[in-house]
Amino acid sequence: MLAHARGNWRPRVAKQDVSRARKDSEGLAEAIVARKEELYELSFGTGATRTDGWIDIEGGAGTLFAYSSKGRRELPDDTIVSEGAVEALSKRGTFVGQHVLTSLQGAALHINAFNFPVWGMLEKLGPTLLAGMPAIVKPASPSAYVAEPRSAS
User: Are 121 and 137 in contact (CB under 8 A)?
Assistant: First the structure.
C-alpha cells in the first residue's frame, strides 16, 4: 500500500498546485454533503445519535471547506511556498538564501479513533491534500464501515 502511495499517487499530487488541491478538497466535501443521509444511516450502527452523526459527517465536510478557504487566503497557487524574506548568507551579501516549502517525499499515514470516523479522518486529510501528499487512512475497526464510503468517494 505504501509503495502504491509513493509510486503512483505521490507523483500526481505533488505536481498539483494549491488551487487544484483546494478544488479536490471542496469536491470531497460536496460529495460527503450529498451523501449525508446514507452516512447518517451507517453512523446509527455505531450507536451514534443524529446529533453525533451531524458533528461527525457535516462537521467533517465543514472542516474540509475550512481548510480549502484557509489555503485560498494564505497559500499561493503553486507547488512551492516561499517562507520569510531573502537573507544574506555571506559577509558581503553576494550569497543569499530563502526558505521554501514544498511537499515531502513519501506518504502520510493517518490512524483514526473510533468516535468520529468521518471528521477525525477529514481533519487530517484536509491539510495533507493542501500539502500535496498522498495519504493512507487506517480507520478504527469498530467504525471503519462508516469511514469506508467516504474514502471511496
Answer: yes
- b/e sequence 54-86, b meaning 16+ C-beta within 10 Å: eebbbebbbbbbebbeebeeebeeebeeeeeee
For 114-129, the DSSP string reads: SS-TTHHHHHHHHHHH
**Is the separation of the CB atoms in 81 and 102 below 8 Å?**
yes
Alpha-carbon gap, residue 81 to 48, rounded angstroms: 41
What is the pTM for the complete model shown?
A: 0.78
DSSP-based three-state secondary structure for 134: coil
Joined together, the cell numbers standing for residue 89 give 548568507
CA distance 114 to 46: 9
Using CB atoms within 10 A of its CB, is residue 44 exposed (0-12), middle (13-18) or buried (19+)? middle
Contacts of residue 55, Cβ cutoff 8 Å, sequence gap at least 6: 116, 119
How do residues 70-118 score in pLDDT, each as one tens digit?
988 988 888 888 889 999 999 998 999 999 988 777 889 998 887 788 8
